[in-house]
Every structure is written in C-alpha cells, then in structure tokens.
Design a protein that fits this description.
By secondary structure, the chain is mainly α. The protein has one domain. Helices cover 50% and strands 0% of the residues. The chain is globular and about 50 Å long. The two termini are 24 Å apart.
Length: 101
C-alpha cells in the first residue's frame, strides 16, 4: 500500500498531460474486511502469496481497510473492493475508469 504513486507520479503526469493506468489498486488482495480475513483463517483458504508469503494483513493494511469501509459506507458502496469505491478515489485524483481485458 505504497502511496508514492499519488505523491510523485500523479503531479508529474498532470503537468505533462499524461494519462495513467494504476496497477494493483486492490493491493494484491490485501484490501479485505476483518471478517473476510477471519474466514480465510478458519477455512485455510489464506490469500495471495505470490509477492509475500505472509497473506495476512499488517496493522497498516488493516487501518487502510477500516478507512475504506468508512468511506464506502458514506458513499453507499456495498464492499470495500467495489467498483463504486475505487472509481470514487480514482476520480478524486483525476483518473477515469480503466477497463480490463
């Protein structure tokens, strides 16, 4: 959940009129609720471990997810990974919808 993209790249892109395509907007599967993480713990499903063998979120990642839950509730998003919530943040920094293949 590195924020350097917002701090460094977006201002540079804006000043040069460049478009952006954010990568890993769901933080490699770390964006989830406490309930979802507990369910994974109980079922043994775990999570994505390609980039990090520790599939559980750290305290910073949990705090980010709590903040997303709060904003999601304010804008009527049904889940913290909903497209509505993602679009809300991307539009706030000047990025339109990106549609995958």
């Amino acid at each position: 959940m590195d924020r350097s993209f917002e701090r460094e790249i977006i201002p540079m892109a804006r000043s040069n009129g460049l478009a952006l395509a954010p990568w890993s907007v769901l933080a490699s599967g770390k964006i989830r609720t406490d309930e979802e993480e507990e369910k994974r713990r109980q079922t043994g499903e775990k999570g994505r471990m390609i980039f990090d063998p520790n599939w559980e979120r750290n305290e910073k990642e949990k705090a980010v997810c709590k903040a997303l839950e709060k904003v999601g509730a304010e804008i009527g998003a049904k889940h913290i990974t909903s497209g509505k919530l993602i679009r809300h943040f991307l539009r706030g920094i000047g990025i339109g919808d990106v549609h995958g293949v």
